[in-house]
Amino acid sequence: MKRTKIIDALKSTEYGKTITVKGWVRTHRSSKAVDFIALNDGSTIKNIQVVVDPTKFDEELLKQITTGACIGVEGTLVESPAQGQASEVQGEKIVIYGLCGSDYPMQKKGQSFEAMRKNAHMRLRTNTFGAVMRIRHNMAMAIHTYFHEHGFFYFHTPLITASDCEGAGNMFQVTTKNLYDLKKDEQGKIIYDDDFFGEQTSLTVSGQLEGELGATALGAIYTFGPTFRAENSNTPRHLAEFWMIEPEMAFYDQEELMDLEEDFIKYCVRWALDNCKDDLEFLNKMVDKGLIERLEGVLKESFVRLPYTEGINILQEAIRNGKKFEFPCNWGDDLASEHERYLVEEHFKKPVIMTDYPREFKSFYMKQNEAASDGGSIGYKGAIAPGPTMQGTDVLFPQIGEIIGGSVREESYDKLMAEVDRRKMDTTHLWWYMDTRRWGSCPHAGFGLGFERLILFVKGMQNIRDVIPFPRTPKNAEF
Question: What is the separation of C-alpha 234 from the centre of its chain, rounded to a whole number of angstroms?
């Protein structure tokens, strides 16, 4: 008999119909009169209850049905007398596909997240990680749907590259060379002429630069794919392999870019609330009791648009009033997560888009604000900064800190080259990028969103390693 997914069985009102459900046992409670088996197949957070008359089944067979075992049940769909479930199955035939002994690591008792990371190959079968992965899928669908509906084209950028997106992160090298017998020149530098690509190549840290090329041909594109950063960061917010969404748009200015960032984030949050209700309610109950309220709060409020200089003034005022920060926050400092979270969670109590950062810690390709007469910069909505600033637009979120990093890109060849020269950059591998400013250049802007950070916020999880199936972190490439 054709299998009925549990999500469909629970919605069905065809009581009296014979159906077959298959899945993994969550719990099995036995008594002399009746056995109750909670079965889940991953299609929903909810289990279907299978009710079994033990006198109709072999006692040894029922003993083998333990937590984690995989079984198929044929039986009659009936209206359930129990609270919290509309339907259940009166089991008539049971087939065991896979046994599960007492050493199964995901027993019904609560497991810590740390323990489950050590068993990442099995944690996906738990209620929590089933919810996490279903929401992750829905967020991917939301992203593709949003950009498709707004006229963007899905653009594939290379995973292997010879450029480093100018310091976006340390890179993993890709080579076919024998690492025990490297050919070197007189200065001791490795010669790559016998390597597969004939030059040094690495896994990409960002598809932005290639994405800009797509935007100048198609008008508006987005990338959505894996990126890699070889940073020795053992923190709850960093992964060595993660997924990035990077839209790039021709003819956008700073105001339009911020409008897009806010609308996109709100669309994704709304999608989660509309399409992941059961999973979010489970996570709200078991992981983060303020999750749904926080998600709904994002939709109610307009994001604050805050020039960096004004943000520094707010932080320094907080220090004068007794607030303690671990890291300094003077003008010219790159803000730490604690500063970002203070602005979002304590001062404004809503998401913030911070703009117009000092030039010194932003990338060369960002558009510089106009100079003020005193040598400073005229930034967002006429704000005056004491030094040169770039048109960056970073979205800061509660619990996460920075969730989006974006900017208007410098479209002038002369200005871009002046910044390259000022930084003494080697543009050997970026000649093609500079060509976009020589031939038919246009105003354009874009941003990058770490997919896992979005998932971290939507799910209320505390560690980024718990929102991706198999996390890649320093000293960890298992599974």
Answer: 17
Q: Are 308 and 355 in contact (CB under 8 A)?
A: yes
Residue 167 is predicted with a pLDDT of 60
3-state secondary structure (DSSP) of residue 459 = helix
Here the contacts of 331-338 (C-beta below 8 Å, separation 24 or greater) are 331/358, 331/385, 331/386, 331/387, 332/358, 332/360, 332/387, 334/361, 335/308, 335/311, 337/237, 337/401, 337/402
pTM, rounded to two decimals? 0.93
Q: Which amino acid does the sequence have at 49?
A: Q
DSSP string, 50-80: EEE-GGGS-HHHHHT--TT-EEEEEEEEEE-
Q: Cα–Cα distances in Å, from 423 out to 26, 162, 166, 283, 392?
A: 59, 20, 11, 47, 18
- pLDDT of amino acid 101: 87
pLDDT tens, position by position, 101-138? 888 888 767 788 998 999 999 999 999 999 999 999 99
Dihedral pair phi/psi, residue 126, rounded to 5°: -80, 160
pLDDT in the model for residue 168: 57
Q: Are 366 and 394 in contact (CB under 8 A)?
A: no
The helix (H) or strand (E) run that includes residue 267 is: helix 254-275
Closest CA to 250 of 216, 222, 221: 216
The C-alpha torsion from 116 through 121 and 127 to 130, rounded to 10°, is 130
3-state secondary structure of 405: strand
What's the confidence (pLDDT) of residue 429? Answer: 83
Are 202 and 160 in contact by the 8 Å Cβ rule? The answer is yes
pLDDT digits (tens, 9 = 90+) for 58-74: 999 999 999 999 999 99
C-beta separation of 236 from 456 below 8 A: no
SS (H, E, C) 111-166: CCHHHHHCCHHHHCCCHHHHHHHHHHHHHHHHHHHHHHHCCCEECCCCCEECCCCC
Identity of the amino acid at 120: A
Burial track 359-372 (b if 16+ CB lie within 10 A, e otherwise):
beebbbbbbbbeeb
- The Cα–Cα gap between 19 and 21 comes to 7
CA 390 and chain centroid, separation:
26
Pairing of strands 87-98, 48-52: parallel
Query: CA-to-CA distance for 42 and 48, rounded, in angstroms?
Result: 11
Q: How many CB atoms lie within 10 A of CB 319?
A: 12
Q: Is 26 helix (H, G, I), strand (E, B) or coil?
A: strand
10 Å CB burial of residue 69 (0-12, 13-18, 19+) is: buried
